Amino acid sequence: MEHTITLTGHGVRLVPLATEHASALAALVDHALWAGMTVPLPDTEESMTAYVDAAVRTPGRAAFAVLGDDGAVRGSTSLHELVPSQGRAEAGHTFYGRTWWGGRSNPACKLLLLQHAFETERLYRVGFRVDSRNTRSLAAMERLGAVREGVLRGARIAHDGSRGDTVVLSVLAPEWPDVRARLEARLG
To answer: Where does the record place the N-acetyltransferase domain (predicted)?
Structure first.
């Protein structure tokens, strides 16, 4: 869905995802980085433009480009499956260039997304779905305080045709103060 939300803090700026970001995003992805994703690898400007266009057109999805303070495109993330009447959304469709792995970008983005979800949108639940083979992302979700709810067996087909399990995690509104404190402590 098209939106005008911009979120800023801790060295990152989340801006509405647009085709102008496609070239920079395409340069960040490769087969190993994209492992477990369910859409084909968008490693050309043309295929990333199609990915961006689809993200922007998806109802209930607020897609963002992640920019650094210097304006460099670091990756993309989204709030999706947004159902305000039910007080829920999911955070995902997230990827960063390897330069920003293990740094401040992901915790900063999660803080901004969750803060927007819980404090601006007044949601009760933000969920996460992660391919069970993506141990790096699972560890990041658990480090921020997301609660593992279960595993959907054989629920996803990756872009390479392999079938994998989906781990479902969430943060609920009563847990948000603790999660926020953890993220703020990590960001110093």
So the answer is: 13-146
Backbone phi, then psi, for 132, in 5-degree steps?
A: -60, -20
Q: What residues make up the domain containing 97?
A: 7-187
Prediction pTM value: 0.94
Residues written for the chain: 188
In a domain, 1, yes or no: no
pLDDT tens string 137-161: 899 899 999 999 999 999 988 877 8
Burial of 181 (0-12, 13-18, 19+ CB in 10 A): exposed
Tally of CA atoms within 13 A in the half-sphere of 118 that contains its CB? 21
The CATH code of the domain that includes 67 is: 3.40.630.30
55-67: average pLDDT: 97
Say how many domains are in the chain: 1
Alpha-helical segments (H) within the chain? 22-26, 45-57, 105-115, 135-144, 176-187
